[in-house]
Amino acid sequence: MRITSILLSLLAVAAMSAGNANAASANLVKNGDFSQVSNGNNNQVGHVAGVTGETMLANWTSYDGNNGGYNFVLNGTQVTTTDSRIWLQSFTPQTNGGNFFASDPLYHAGVLSQTISGLTVGDKYTLTFDYALGQQSGNTGANTDYWQVLFGQTPKAHDLEVGVLPANTVTQNSASLSIATGGFSGWQTSTMTFTAAQASQVLSFFAQGSAGAPPFLLLDNVSLTAAVPEPSTWGMLLGGIGLVGFMARRRAAKRA
Predict the structure, then answer these.
(1) How far is CA 168 from CA 127, 152, 207, in A?
(2) Does the keyword Transit peptide apply (predicted)?
(3) Which strands sit side by side in the sheet containing 124-135, from one edge to the other?
(4) Distance between CA 252 and CA 183 in Å, rounded?
């Protein structure tokens, strides 16, 4: 009876672990591909709806303290043409050719934020996103830039510029991307892990970089999922099941 209880407990743990693994496929970020806009593609991102020449990103907030900042939603099939508000040099699109977010870290960069709900306090979450660095047409000069990612409370752009974080907020940086004048970095993927301190927290992106001619940091395919159980957890589980089997065989041998 005791062995049966232990085995059932281990199977329950296995089921819970499998459930967590399946939950990891659910993206908690909404509109992570920036496809949902209020006023078309290739527009400056606004902070207040209805401003002429601006568009709103569903589920996201872009704010530099006064307005949406010098942030844009652009389209991969148009960004090297005159149809685009910002024309990037040497640009290579993602395979899907869809929308992406673009921010100039040196000119009124706004914080891009989204409130993430449904978190489990103490659980780890994996953040992944694609990013790249390009330069606006008509400009020259080398650049090195990166995304500062924050998880906690809503930050203010002018505070981040001087290194001040909001309370109860953790931050990580993507790897820096560097380009020569007129260059394009190509798309990269960044992966980070954050631990939830509250059931609802704000995920934010802020473009940071060195002085240079107008660069644009690009962002696409943002995803936040529950972390998959560590391999060590599965190892302990399998070891426990093996131990139960050994005990069962030993008991059977004694009875024989």
Answers:
(1) 18, 6, 21
(2) no
(3) 54-55, 43-45, 71-75, 99-103, 215-226, 124-135, 188-195
(4) 72
Contact 89, 119 (CB under 8 A): no
| Residue position matching structure tokens 């694609």 | 130
Domains of the chain plus CATH, in order, are 1-24+229-256 (no CATH), 27-227 (2.60.120.260)
Residue 21 Rama label (left phi>0; alpha psi -120 to 50; beta) = alpha
**Rounded to a whole number, what is the distance in angstroms from the first to the last CA of the chain?**
18
Pick from 253, 168, 223, 181: which is nearest to 29 by CA? 223
Amino acid at 114: Q
Q: Which two tokens stand for residue 192?
A: 């980070």
Q: How far is the CA of 105 from the CAs of 182, 208, 217, in angstroms?
A: 17, 5, 7
**Phi/psi at 133 (5° precision):** -130, 130
Task: Give the residues across from 57 on adjacent strands.
Answer: 37
Rounded average pLDDT per 10-residue block, the chain, 256 residues: 47 46 74 94 90 93 92 92 89 88 92 97 98 92 94 93 91 96 95 97 94 85 88 48 52 58
Spatial CB neighbours of 16, under 8 Å, sequence gap ≥ 6: none
Residue 92's nearest CA partner among 178, 175, 184 is: 184
Q: For residues 161 and 217, give the distance between their C-alpha atoms in angstroms, rounded to a whole number.
A: 16
Q: Which two tokens stand for residue 255?
A: 């009875």
| Chain center to CA of 190 | 8
